[in-house]
């Protein structure tokens, strides 16, 4: 099983006029997610399913990825991808899905924490920029500390 941990794209700035959960992607953020997802096709053919934090910017990121990869399954909202979610919960959700390629879209700093936990490197601080992806491979049943970090790609800047 492969779990792909993805940070949502660049989001609108925090504002008193817009609740945190309604902040969406910027135009540039959406373009970078699309360019990055197109580049990821060099490393993976598709995803069986995409799980997303319920926040708007994560769902928009998941929708772009789903479109680029032509994923047939509907994106699943997963509250464990909100900040404060536990890596153990993400793994316990992934296992019963019985799928080989699972994408999970969430937020920093938790995406970095999940990467470290999955590969057994809890003393490592993975600071993941918006629209970055990490591939964690599990040879057997996924468990904390048993994953192998096979890929960590920064976002692709559309402008160069």
Total beta strand runs? 6
SS-based class: alpha/beta
Q: Please state the CA-atom Rg, rounded to the nearest Å.
A: 15 Å
Average pLDDT, rounded to a whole number, is 94
Question: What does the model show?
Answer:
The protein has 4 helices and 6 strands. The longest helix is centred in the N-terminal third of the chain and has 14 residues, at 27-40. Helices cover 31% and strands 18% of the residues. The protein has helices at residues 27-40, 56-69, 87-97, 110-119, and strands at residues 2-7, 49-52, 76-77, 101-106, 133-137, 148-153. The model has no long low-confidence stretch (mean pLDDT 94). It has 160 residues and is of the alpha/beta class. It has one domain: 3-Layer(aba) Sandwich (Rossmann fold). The chain has a 6-stranded mixed sheet, with helices on both faces. α1 runs parallel beside α2 (56-69).
SSE map:
Blueprint: E1 2-7, H1 27-40, E2 49-52, H2 56-69, E3 76-77, H3 87-97, E4 101-106, H4 110-119, E5 133-137, E6 148-153
Helix pairs in contact: 1-2
Question: Care to give the gist of this entry?
Answer:
This protein has a single domain (2-10, 22-153), classed as 3-Layer(aba) Sandwich (Rossmann fold), CATH 3.40.50.1240. Helix content is 31%, strand content 18%.
Give short descriptive properties of this protein.
alpha/beta; Rossmann fold; six-stranded mixed sheet; 6 strands; 18% strand; globular
């Amino acid at each position: 099983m492969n779990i792909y941990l993805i940070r949502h794209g660049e989001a609108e700035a925090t504002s008193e006029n817009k609740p945190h959960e309604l902040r969406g992607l910027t135009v540039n953020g959406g373009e970078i997610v699309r360019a990055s997802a197109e580049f990821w096709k060099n490393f993976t053919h598709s995803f069986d399913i995409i799980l997303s934090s319920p926040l708007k910017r994560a769902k928009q990121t998941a929708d772009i990825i789903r479109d680029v990869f032509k994923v047939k399954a509907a994106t699943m909202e997963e509250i464990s991808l909100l900040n404060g979610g536990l890596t153990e919960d993400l793994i316990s959700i992934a296992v019963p899905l019985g799928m080989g390629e699972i994408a999970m879209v969430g937020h920093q700093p938790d995406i970095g924490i999940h990467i470290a936990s999955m590969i057994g490197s809890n003393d490592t601080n993975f600071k993941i920029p918006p629209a970055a992806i990490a591939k964690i491979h599990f040879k057997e049943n996924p468990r904390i500390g048993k994953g192998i970090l096979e890929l960590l790609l920064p976002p692709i800047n559309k402008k160069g």
